[in-house]
Amino acid sequence: MKPVEIAKGIYDVGVIDWNIRDFHGYSTYRGTSYNAYLILDEKITLIDTVKKEFADELMENISSIVDPNSIDYVISNHTEPDHSGGLARVMHRIGEDKPLYCSKMGAKNLALHFPQKWNFKAVGSGEELSIGKRKLTFLETRMLHWPDSMFTYLQNEKILFSSDAFGQHYAGHEKFDDVIGDAIMPHAKKYFANILLPYSNLILKLVEQVTALGLEFNMICPDHGVIWRQDPAKIIQAYIEWSKQEPEKKAVVIYDTMWHSTEKMANAITVGLIDCGVTVKPMHLRKWHRSDIMTEVMDARAVIIGSPTLNNGLYPTVSDFLTYMKGLKPKNKIGTAFGSYGWSGEAAKLIRNELEAMKIEIVEPELRQQYIPDSEGMNACFELGSKIGRAIAG
Ligand code: FEO
User: Does ligand 1 lie within 6 Å of residue 80's CB atom?
Assistant: First the structure.
């Protein structure tokens, strides 16, 4: 990607990763981008870098605008390697002793990633840095989503460099929200559901903090995906809504199956839910990626999970999903478990235990069917779906 001048004298010098399809367990069907920002002022400043394997492309992009040696300051908003991986290349090229601004945790974490003794300048919330005509303010956003995370705010142009926040894993020619339109929102939602959901309370507090500071945003520049310049308030409002985790009248039936019996149960439960007029998403764990399922879970009221019993335990895909969902800490859910079994039949109980550990309210006992559900068994599944449907519909 060639650099894009996003405002006068301010460039996105980042790169597009068209081919990435798995981002530490998150499916990135549309690739992603690693955005990095270059500000030309009396002190030329680079905000963030890119993944290590794209460092040459970053350097080419910078070189097409300025001699990299003329960069005076580097700011690292976040240590995760998709943004710091190019730091070694950048610092080597511009001079290892150039000031490297980051949060206190950033200095600690960068030192744990890189052996070089860089000239760290640890900054805290509210600290300012003059770069000539412009002034930057730092805002620590600890645990959004790493301990080192921070925002950098450009006072003059009212631009927020928001690191991972407000990002989307999306590779495209569109650089701005007004170019792509609402088509970007599902990508932003999936990103929130799979990365930021556990930090919902922190996000609501951060919004309060930013509101109290009276900060205004003409533009929000995340480190992934498109830049919000037409309507930055739209993505902030979406974050507030997603953080509240107020569910819709919706259920997700998540399952895997060995010989189609648990699938039959899932289908009958789904029909029972549909009969109550609620939105239902039946999701087979080998047909849907865990990160797409999690996006549906985020705004669902009910999560109903099924597994056959395999060797006295859960089907491996179900274990995988439960582990993934547990880490993302969804709130305000009801649910139950179900599954077919041959002789021992532990799976449904094991799922129930996991749901309880996630503080998901078990509104109906788990339902098991031996081998192949007969018509009575199918009726029991339909009835389970109906009961949960009625609980959702209120
Ligand atoms: Fe895009 Fe937390 O890294």
Answer: yes
82 is catalytic: yes
Q: Residue whose CA is closest, atom 2 of ligand 1? A: 80
Pairing of strands 15-17, 32-34: antiparallel
pLDDT at 394 over 90: no
| CA 381/CA 373 separation, integer angstroms | 9
Q: How many CB atoms lie within 10 A of CB 388?
A: 27
Q: Which atom of ligand 1 is nearest to the CA of 145?
A: 2
Q: Give me the amino acid identity at 55.
A: A
Give the SS3 label for residue 164: coil
Half-sphere exposure of 262 (CA within 13 A, CB side): 32
Q: Judge whether 162 and 149 are in contact, CB under 8 Å.
A: no
| Whole-number percent of the chain with pLDDT over 70 | 100
Is pLDDT at 91 greater than 80 in this prediction? yes
Which residue is it, tokens 């981008």? 33
What's the predicted TM-score (pTM) here? 0.97
**Ligand 1: centre distance to CA 51 (Å):** 10
Average pLDDT score over residue span 304-316: 98
Cβ of 148 closer than 6 Å to ligand 1, yes or no, is no
pLDDT of res. 137: 97
213 or 19: whose pLDDT is higher?
19
Report the pLDDT value the prediction gives residue 1, as an integer from 0 to 100: 77
Q: Are 71 and 49 in contact (CB under 8 A)?
A: no
Phi, psi of 134, deg, nearest 5: -110, 155
Indicate if ligand 1 lies below 6 Å from the C-beta of 134.
Answer: no
